[in-house]
Amino acid sequence: MKNYRTERLSPAGNFEKMKAAFLYGADAVYLAYNSFGMRSAADNFTHEEHFEASEYAPARGKKIYIPLNKMPHGD
């Protein structure tokens, strides 16, 4: 029997929310840029914050994911 590890994934609407997610046990977060993402109500990350998050997370043994959303069209 294999031993599978479940990853705790949390949304991160901004940098402070990302840090809080890690503090409360998330193994990884997913985030979006300001102009790209389906979570438009979130603050989202600037290009510079994305690079900062890319250094912050791995330094703590954590991961970040950037989901790519595609809106289907009839054309």
Question: What labels describe this entry?
Answer:
3-stranded parallel beta sheet, 29% helix, 3 strands, 75 residues, alpha/beta
Structure description:
It is a single chain. The protein has 75 residues and is an alpha/beta fold. It has one domain. It is built from two helices and three strands. Strands 1-2-3 form a three-stranded parallel β-sheet, covered by helices on one side. Helix 2 links the parallel strand 2 and strand 3. The radius of gyration is 14 Å and the shape is globular.
Lay out the secondary structure.
Layout: E1 9-11, H1 15-23, E2 28-30, H2 47-59, E3 63-65
Parallel strand pairs: 1-2, 2-3
In short:
It contains two helices and three strands; from the N terminus they run E-H-E-H-E.
> Strand-residue fraction?
5-15%
What percent of residues adopt helix (DSSP H or I)? Answer: 25-40%
Unreliable runs: none
Count of distinct strands = 3
Give the class from helix and strand content and strand pairing. alpha/beta
Elements, N to C (H/E): EHEHE
Report the total helices: 2
Could you say which overall geometry the principal axes of the C-alpha atoms support?
A: globular
State the strand order across the main sheet: 1-2-3
Terminal Cα span:
47 Å
Overall mean pLDDT? 84
The major sheet is characterized as: 3 strands, parallel
Q: What would you report as the Rg, rounded to the nearest angstrom?
A: 14 Å
Structurally, the number of domains stands at 1
